[in-house]
Amino acid sequence: MTAAPLSFEILARSRAAGARVGRVTTPHGSFDTPAFMPVGTRGTVKGILPSLVAGTGAQIVLANTYHMLLRPGSELVARLGGLHAFTGWHGPILTDSGGYQAYSMADINSVTDDGVRFKSIVDGSMVDLNPERAIEVQNQLGADVIMAFDDCPPSTPSSSSPPAESTDDGAVGAVADPRLTRVHARDRAADPRAHAKRVKLANERTVRWLERCDRAHKAGGRSGEQALFGIVQGGIDLEARRWSAERICAIELPGYAIGGVAVGEGSDQIAAVVRYTAPLLPEARPRYLMGVGYERDLLAAVLAGVDMFDCVLPTRNGRNAYAFTSVGALRLRNARYSDDCLPLEPGCDCVACSGPRPESAEPGFSRAYIRHLFSAGEMLGPILVTLHNLRHFQRFMADVRACVRTDDWRGLVARWPVARAGLPAGLAGE
Amino acid sequence: MTAAPLSFEILARSRAAGARVGRVTTPHGSFDTPAFMPVGTRGTVKGILPSLVAGTGAQIVLANTYHMLLRPGSELVARLGGLHAFTGWHGPILTDSGGYQAYSMADINSVTDDGVRFKSIVDGSMVDLNPERAIEVQNQLGADVIMAFDDCPPSTPSSSSPPAESTDDGAVGAVADPRLTRVHARDRAADPRAHAKRVKLANERTVRWLERCDRAHKAGGRSGEQALFGIVQGGIDLEARRWSAERICAIELPGYAIGGVAVGEGSDQIAAVVRYTAPLLPEARPRYLMGVGYERDLLAAVLAGVDMFDCVLPTRNGRNAYAFTSVGALRLRNARYSDDCLPLEPGCDCVACSGPRPESAEPGFSRAYIRHLFSAGEMLGPILVTLHNLRHFQRFMADVRACVRTDDWRGLVARWPVARAGLPAGLAGE
Hints:
2 copies of one chain form a homodimer.
Chain A: E1 7-13, E2 20-26, E3 29-33, E4 35-37, H1 50-55, E5 61-63, H2 65-70, H3 74-79, H4 82-87, E6 93-95, H5 99-105, E7 107-111, E8 116-119, E9 126-129, H6 131-141, E10 145-147, H7 192-220, E11 227-232, H8 238-249, E12 255-258, H9 267-277, E13 287-289, H10 295-303, E14 308-310, H11 313-319, E15 322-325, E16 328-331, H12 351-354, H13 367-375, H14 380-406, H15 409-415, H16 425-428
Parallel strand pairs in A: 4-14, 5-6, 6-10, 10-11, 11-12, 12-13, 13-14
Antiparallel strand pairs in A: 1-2, 2-3, 7-8, 8-9, 15-16
């Protein structure tokens, strides 16, 4: 019997909904839940020093196993002391399993019950990823939370969504909408019956693969330091979600995730799946909704009892001059901001809006300056908007955590109108 | 009579050479001399928050008038409160006059005794720059030190150097060598007699233009807050340098610069010109050597009595994975660094080498990690090497300032072997 790699303490519960606030403790420190994790795909939250990431209030970050495996390689990261020492982020880290990117980004050679074989996007070499290898790689990377290698099927039989995109934080030139990503074009069957068959296969395979992940992790010698989370699949079919949740949660693990959400469906559908699925996961374990999302989606999921989130929205959109505010987005390339001396969001306490406190009493940066930086192609533009967006999501989550204790959800959406659609009519008092 | 916009106090002098340490005070604070100014071409030291620039020890930064004039425009910057408020750098700022870039970067339409007419690289519009307009624009930008609009001739009759490059910190993809830049290809005459004639015209014109700058600045209403520096020209012809120094310094100003150096000639020639010219400038005024340079060039110039420097080397080279150390450069893209767990320079106290002190006891970043960032095209690579390089030059200048008081120049070059060639044989004890 090894020591528990992770503990989860629930500190308070909403009386009006399934929401709870808590604290997860890992070998690299604790984080408050509900938690929003910035994405550091290649071992860096793009353009942001780890100390500045921490300064936004983030307490845990995500790294993508697929990218770190291909470059610089998980063996190298292990030799250099693991992800914490390598990247300079000394707090908790979560790695995904690499499965999702292998499916969505790679030139796939084969998918079998054993695993996935694909061509590296870095050097064209053939790479195998399967439950045992995904665990071995994550053991080498050394994150505090590691994810099961799952078979993530497309959520809908067909869709007019664009072709497969990654949910890692790549250098994509467009503003991200997570609802339009994570769609596996190659794997999408227009025929609903073929799709249903594929979803069933994926759900069954995900259970078998989780059993293999669990065995491999226990055999790998790091299960006392790294917490393996299972992933519930099932697409938008609630019965498939129930089937998956029962099988996945039958395997005792430190935490469970809801995968295959925000892969092309709308906010209402996301909320419906999450409201149905989250209560099926063990009450005493942290629940992680993968790849979500906008403020309204976060709010709906917290109210359903979800504790952890990751999303590329603050970083990827930030690099594209898209600033989140409590009342909606600013697109800083717009000429209307060229002589706007306001900060991105008046009252925001981020470095971009309020300057480098507490070291100085200097003010922050104007929309006009940030627009100038984007117009001139200056790196500081993406840096400032990313810092603001990261802080925006952390401020929002901190307010959500406070509201779990007060149940003043109408007050919350008055402060964050952008999240209003995530509040069920019952709680909105309408 | 307006208040003095700038004061210069000499605090100590070398007994062995012309070097001095001092302190320049401006309306936005003071800086220690000899001073190294990072270059923030478009109103940002590329990729680095102003608070982090200050954290490297920089006390004054340079911005390029030419670039700010074309985008976002000096009128807009003035409306938004001037460069300090606009850029978030609240310490001293120096702007060049825009003349150099107009010559070297622009599609020049005409050069006359009145000034220069060129095509904007931003929108193709026709732009006029002359002494009066250069001062007006710099008055609008509001820097603490502003530079005269000069006619900078090519330094040598002909050269095998590459065609004209800017000395602003542009997004150039190559490592910078300032000795190979600032050459005006279009303006270079292969015929030595034609070249001598052009140099003579430029020198005479620079004096006439300085008189116009001085008048315009006094009439502009900001001469009590902004210090105008004159620029001595003359290329590598020492008699021309003497002629220019006498005429330029006959106009009483708060400071004087040596221009037209490091425009294609070698370190020895730079040192020869600077050793000859610096003592011709008023002892009681700060002396500024424009666009220089490597550590050896800085040392030679300090020993000749120069007080201020600017150069794009730490920033431009940093973005290209070129890290300065006391013993020479590291080129971080080299595969030899792929599993090198050392920091860029052991013992360096920069954020990249030593982490974000004093807030934390976390270590810095390894060469292997920084190489990974460059391999993966991650912004944090340029950011970390730029931060290191900026700190490298500030640490070097701080040690140089200390040596002015002790005259232990052999000790200095023992600590900074990379600067050894800047030490004259007499001081090296050889």
